Amino acid sequence: MSPEPAADPLLDRAVRLRRRARGFDRRHPRVLDAAVVAAVALVAVSDLLFGESAPDADRGGVPAFVPYACAVAMALALWWRRRHPAAVFFALTVFVVAQSASGLWLPARVSIIFAFCTLFAFYTLASIGPLRLFAWGAVLIGAGMLLMVLVFEDMSQPLLSLVLILGTVTAAGALGLTARIHRMYTAALEDRARRMEVERDQRERLIAAAERTRIAREMHDILGHNLSVMVTLADGAATLADRRGEESAPTLRMLGETGREAMDELRRVLGVLHAEDRDPRSLSPQPGVGDLDALLDRVRAAGLVVTCRTSGRLDLLGPGVQLTVYRIIQEALTNTIKHAGGPAAAAVTLTVDHSRVHIRVLDTGGEPVVRNGRREPGRGLIGIRERAALYGGTATIGPNGSGSGWTVDVVLDPATAPPGTGASQ
Known about the structure:
Blueprint: H1 9-27, H2 29-50, H3 65-77, H4 85-102, H5 108-128, H6 131-152, H7 158-244, H8 249-274, H9 292-301, E1 305-311, H10 319-339, E2 345-353, E3 356-363, E4 369-371, E5 374-376, H11 378-390, E6 394-399, E7 406-412
Parallel strand pairs: 1-2
Antiparallel strand pairs: 2-3, 3-7, 4-5, 6-7
């Protein structure tokens, strides 16, 4: 593939200047109109005051200031050229033809101003006016130039003058049409870019939905099957232990209940993965601080001695914050059970103070898993930090300094939750 040619610096600078000028004109649309009117009127007045062609006396009974007053009036008409392009053009064209037909004497510079105003109005009509009126305007200005050159004005070379005048008029109309086409082309490109952006977003959403469906299917096939087998075996073992009068029956029944709760959680997650636009609040309720007692009972049944102390208005916490608190305590206690080398204990403290939520889990468990000579904190501790960061909080996790056990200390700031944070975490 051949390399792309380098951009011309001058052309690139011109494009940037043009883009800035168009942006300024969009922000201040009347500034350009005022500048055009001021420039044209200034030229006419300066010719009246200092021009060599300024008359010293009246000509044809017309006061000397009349031509200049007409030039200033034509310049002022350009103020409305973009709001009423057709009306301004037709008025100026009729005025120029009527001036030529009446034989009103004009200095050379004022005649140029008349021509400039008419051509500028014709350009504006071609650029932003209705195309049907532009066609009629082209016929009008063409017929008016023919009458002026061949009938009203006394020119030594009328055909050459007619060719030059009509060529100038054609150039003004062509420039206006070019500006119109360029503006339409740019608008079409911008519209196409917007549509492509929408299509890209839709395609990304479809890909994400397909990936969520695949993940949900894999989770259902693997975790759902294994959990179902575990629950069935636990229920069967509990029934058999009951018949034999063994003490393990309550523990086995709790194992089955825990497995069923895990299956419910799995179904809830799979439902979220399958339905992107579903309101999370329409799903089954997520756990909150009110479910901590049941969580602690399950943990105690697993052999961990747990104490819990709460303070503050926990009921004022939103569902998203309550879910975050529940998950952090759940993960901290799960790590204690996993890493405890023997009988362990944990103390949970939950405090709500003003707009802050303070969670502390102090245990006497063991160290994190050591693999290949390195401590691996596990995904659970990373999840605790991520949940804390979601609410603008901090998470301090490490040894408690007593020689054994760890401390999980988390501070949340619910006021800094991002928009859309709900109970679906």
